[in-house]
């Protein structure tokens, strides 16, 4: 079994000013509050959402 790569995503900017679709994408990533961190397996779907939300998040 291969080891899955994981990424940690942190919400560093308020969602105020984001449109509804952007807010829904951030919620789909599991981010609801400022400075909240979530961990995800680095799948193409997650990486696509991360690339679109670079303005609001920080990836470790």
Explain how this protein is built.
This protein is 30% helix and 23% strand. With 60 residues, the protein is α+β, with helices and mostly antiparallel strands. The protein has a single domain (6-59), classed as Ribosomal Protein L30, Chain: A, CATH 3.30.1390. It has a three-stranded antiparallel β-sheet, with no helix packed on it. The model has no long low-confidence stretch (mean pLDDT 95).
List the helices and strands and how they pair.
Elements: E1 6-11, H1 20-28, E2 37-41, H2 44-52, E3 57-59
Antiparallel strand pairs: 1-2, 1-3
Short overview:
The chain has 60 residues and is of the alpha+beta class. The protein contains two helices and three strands, in the order E-H-E-H-E.
- For the record, the CATH architecture stands as 2-Layer Sandwich
Span between termini: 24 Å
Question: What is the H-and-E element order?
Answer: EHEHE
Q: Which sequence of strands runs across the widest sheet?
A: 2-1-3
CATH 4th-level superfamily: Ribosomal protein L30/L7
Question: How would you describe this structure in keywords?
Answer:
globular; 23% strand; Ribosomal Protein L30, Chain: A; 3 strands; 3-stranded antiparallel beta sheet; alpha+beta; 60 residues
């Amino acid at each position: 079994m291969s080891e899955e790569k994981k990424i940690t995503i942190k919400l560093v900017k308020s969602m105020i000013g984001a449109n509804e679709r952007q807010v829904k994408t951030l919620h789909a990533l599991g981010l609801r509050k400022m400075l909240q961190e979530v961990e995800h397996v680095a799948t193409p779907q997650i990486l696509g959402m991360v690339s679109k939300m670079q303005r609001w998040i920080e990836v470790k």
